[in-house]
Structures are given as C-alpha cells and as structure tokens.
Amino acid sequence: MGVNSIMATIGTMFIWRGVGYTLTNGESILAMNPVIDYIGRGFVFKVIPFPIVMLVIFFLVTYVIMNHSKWGRRIYAIGANPLASYLSGINVKRVKFINFLFCGFTASLGGLILTSLSAVGMPQHGQGLELVIVSSIILGGTALGGGKGQILGTLAGVLILSILYNFLTIMNIYYFYIQIVQGSVLILVVSTYEIRQSMARRRM
Predict the structure, then answer these.
(1) What does the pLDDT average to over 71-85?
(2) Virtual torsion, Cα 41, 42, 45, 51, nearest 10 deg
(3) Residue 50: exposed, middle, or buried by beta-carbon count in 10 A (0-12, 13-18, 19+)?
(4) pTM higher than 0.90 for the full model?
(5) Does the pLDDT of residue 152 top 80, yes or no?
(6) How far is residue 153's CA from residue 173's CA, in Å, rounded to a whole number?
(7) Could you tell me which residue, 121 or 67, shows the higher pLDDT?
(8) pLDDT, tens digit, for every residue of 84-113?
(9) What is the rounded CA–CA span in Å between residue 170 and residue 200?
(10) How far is the C-alpha of 194 from the C-alpha of 190, rounded, in Å?
(11) 43: which of 10, 33, 130, 187 lies 20 to 30 Å off by Cα?
C-alpha cells in the first residue's frame, strides 16, 4: 500500500488497543490457563525460567539469520536503500511482509509472557513500552534511517534499560517519575545518535 511502516504500526496499535478495551469493557481478565501460566512463570529442568529460554532461542535464531544468511543481508540492504534493493532484484514487499509477520509473532509472545507474569490480561498492558523499545534499539546501535544495526547491540540496549527501570521500580520510585526518566533517556539516546552521525559526516 506504500504506507509508512512506523505510522502503520502506530495506527494498528491504537486500533487493536481499542478493540481490547471494547471486548473487555476496560476490565482485567484472569488468566487461568496452565499453558499461559507456564509461558511466563514456568521453569525448564526446574531451574531456568521459560521466558529466558525463549529469549536465548529467539536471539540465536535472529542472530544467525541477520549475520549469516542471504535473508539477513537482504534486510540490511532494504533498510539502507529500498529502491536500490528493488532494482537489484530483491522482492522488497515480500521481505518486509515476512519480517512484519515475525515481529508481530514475537510481540504477541511478549504479550503472553506479560499476561502470565501478572496472571491477568489487561488492555493497558504494554502501554509505554514503545518508548523503551525505541530507546533500546537506538542505544544498541541501530540507525534510525535503517541499514545499520546489530542484534547483540539491541540485546545489550534492552538489558541496560531493563536493569535501570527495574532498579527504579525496586526503589519504589513513583511510576510518573519513571515515565520522566523514560522520556529523558529517549531524548538523550536520540541526541547522542544524532551527534555521532554528525561527527561521522564531518569526517567524510
């Protein structure tokens, strides 16, 4: 359709969030399914939390795809220059479509884990995580313009910000103060990224 990917993602996010509020009347729903319980609170071999196992599996699979496969090279190429990728014979729409499916699947899995951890399903689950996600990927070295980024860097960005926000929560910092920190971190990360880009252009 030629719609900007970010705008389409934000638009559908609001649509489905509204659907969630409509179906539940804005109320929480108890998650009493044993499968859902295991996804977020289960243990593999009674030692390793199941969400950690899924994180490692998805990280390894994505790392191999992005760094050691033709598909990963196509993704980077499209991110850097979609038109040049199309002219070189890459089916840009197909690659984007499959990537969006994969991202949607992982996002839904994250929603299941969040539901399992809290034992309830709430339409407002995940609100505010958009800022954390954007901050994490930029902090991890992903270029806003596309074509540059590493899975390992993204994982590092996620871990750093997760530790920071969990620390603030443990310290009983009010939620609205944490939101101020989230917004400040996003501005700081984006500003640092722009400074690095400006310095790189000057060297050229």
Answers:
(1) 88
(2) -70
(3) middle
(4) no
(5) yes
(6) 28
(7) 67
(8) 988 999 999 899 989 989 988 988 888 888
(9) 39
(10) 6
(11) 130
As a whole number of angstroms, the distance between CA 75 and CA 90 comes to: 10
Burial pattern 84-100, b for ≥16 Cβ within 10 A else e, equals ebeeeebebeebeeebe
Which whole number is the average pLDDT over 118-138?
79
Section 41-54 average pLDDT: 88
Q: Distance between CA 28 and CA 74 in Å, rounded? A: 42
Q: What is the DSSP string of the chain?
A: ----HHHHHHHHHHHHHHHHHHHHTT--EE---HHHHHHHH-EETTTEEHHHHHHHHHHHHHHHHHHHSHHHHHHHHHHH-HHHHHHTT--HHHHHHHHHHHHHHHHHHHHHHHHHHHTEE-TTTTTTHHHHHHHHHHHTT--TTSS---HHHHHHHHHHHHHHHHHHHHTT--HHHHHHHHHHHHHHHHHHHHHHHHHHHHH-
* Amino acid found at 25: N
150 Cβ neighbours under 8 A, 6+ residues apart: 66, 140, 141, 142
Residue 68 has pLDDT above 80, yes or no: yes
In the chain, the N- to C-terminal Cα span, in Å, equals 36
